[in-house]
Amino acid sequence: IPSSPTERSTVLELIRRSCAISHSLNQPYTIITVDQAIYALAKQIVWDRPEDFKSVVLRLGSFHVAYNFLGVIGKRFRHAGLEQLMVESAIVGPSAVGAVLDARQYN
């Protein structure tokens, strides 16, 4: 699809084509895995058209699941010593530990 992946029309076309492929393969469900920005848009489209897309299962990509999970862990345990543990274990440097626990640093 030769257009921006974050445009509503592009995501709608992605969902339609994916459904057509699943249908042609006699699959009862269409499972679509996307990144976080596209997931939000795709979810809105599926919610707006529940009868058209009742067999669509949207999944957030594993990178974004892990990324969000890291942010939750950082928020919950930052002041319980996790920051010091990560630095002293040489998992991450002292200048980057804040960004890692805020889920802003993932390289």
Structural summary, described in words:
With 107 residues, this protein is mainly alpha-helical. Helices cover 54% and strands 9% of the residues. It has five helices and two strands. It has helices at residues 8-24, 36-48, 62-77, 82-88, 97-101; strands at residues 30-34, 56-60. It has a two-stranded parallel sheet. Helix 2 (36-48) links the parallel strand 1 and strand 2 (56-60). Helix 1 crosses helix 2 (36-48). The longest helix is centred in the N-terminal third of the chain and has 17 residues, at 8-24. The two termini are 29 Å apart.
The separation of the N and C termini measures 29 Å
**What is the global morphology?**
elongated
Mean pLDDT: 89
Radius of gyration equals 19 Å
- Please report the number of helical segments: 5
Strand order of the largest sheet: 1-2
Beta-strand residue percentage: 5-15%
Which consecutive residue ranges, at least 5 long each, have pLDDT under 50? none
- Approximate helicity band: 40-55%
| N-to-C SSE string, H for helix and E for strand | HEHEHHH
Instruction: Please count the beta strands (DSSP E, at least 2 residues each).
Output: 2
**Structural class, from secondary structure content?**
mainly alpha
Quick one: biggest sheet?
2 strands, parallel
Oligomer status: single chain
